[in-house]
Design a protein that fits this description.
Strands 4-3-2-1-5 form a 5-stranded mixed β-sheet, with helices on one face. It has helices spanning about 10-25, 105-120, 130-140, 140-155, 160-165, 190-195, and strands at about 30-35, 40-45, 60-65, 75-80, 180. The radius of gyration is 19 Å and the shape is globular. The chain is an alpha+beta fold and about 200 residues long. Helix 3 (about 130-140) packs across helix 4 (about 140-155).
């Protein structure tokens, strides 16, 4: 659901500038999926960091900007299924940077980097997934194996992670912003058949 009409025009201009800047010069391992229809719903693809159970995966993340943004932090969600102590079954993310430590000057880049950092350093003390937190604390090898299994199933390119994002493969020049593709309109012939049935 779009929140554009509830956000101050000055804030929308600032968000537009930041999204353009991030698209032109994205942080390492983060690619934006640009949407022209709703600037308050930011989607990005985050590469799983090396030496973690998420390595080799591509995770689709959503930042939802509320009416109070930038005074209030964006809400972050993993759209790709992930086994992580700070991510709920619904994909909601719990990280202090996007809660009590938020400051308006941090911006979207900082929010995306905070989510990426969670993949490197999960925090079992502020868990939304109790099972993952318990495994992380007590049996790290089991946690690693389960998180890697989820990554292999849900976040590998062959599993549809990159294709579900609607983008094309990354080019030789490094990460680039991607545009979401809208479903194509049905051919005119099909429209005529539908109209005849009515």
């Amino acid at each position: 659901m779009s929140n554009v009409e509830n956000v101050c025009p000055q804030v929308l201009r600032g968000v537009t500038r930041e999204l353009r800047r991030l698209a032109a010069n994205p942080p390492s391992g983060i690619k934006l999926v640009l949407r022209d229809d709703d600037l308050t719903d930011v989607v990005a693809l985050i590469d799983g960091p090396a030496d973690t159970p998420y390595a080799g995966g591509v995770f689709r993340v959503r930042l939802a900007l509320g009416r109070e943004f930038p005074a209030a932090p964006p809400r972050a969600y993993f759209l790709t299924k992930i086994f992580h102590p700070n991510v709920s079954a619904a994909g909601e993310v719990c990280v202090n940077t996007l809660k009590r430590d938020w400051r308006p000057e941090l911006g979207l880049e900082h929010a995306l980097l905070a989510v990426k950092c969670l993949l490197i350093a999960p925090n079992a003390d502020s868990a939304l997934n109790a099972e993952a937190a318990a495994l992380l604390r007590d049996r790290y090898d089991d946690y690693f194996a389960r998180a890697k299994l989820y990554t292999d199933i849900h976040a590998r390119a062959g599993a549809g992670a990159g294709r579900a994002a609607g983008g094309e493969a990354e080019g030789e020049g490094g990460p680039r912003a991607k545009r979401e593709r809208r479903p194509a309109a049905p051919p005119a012939r099909d429209k005529r058949r539908i109209l005849k049935r009515l």
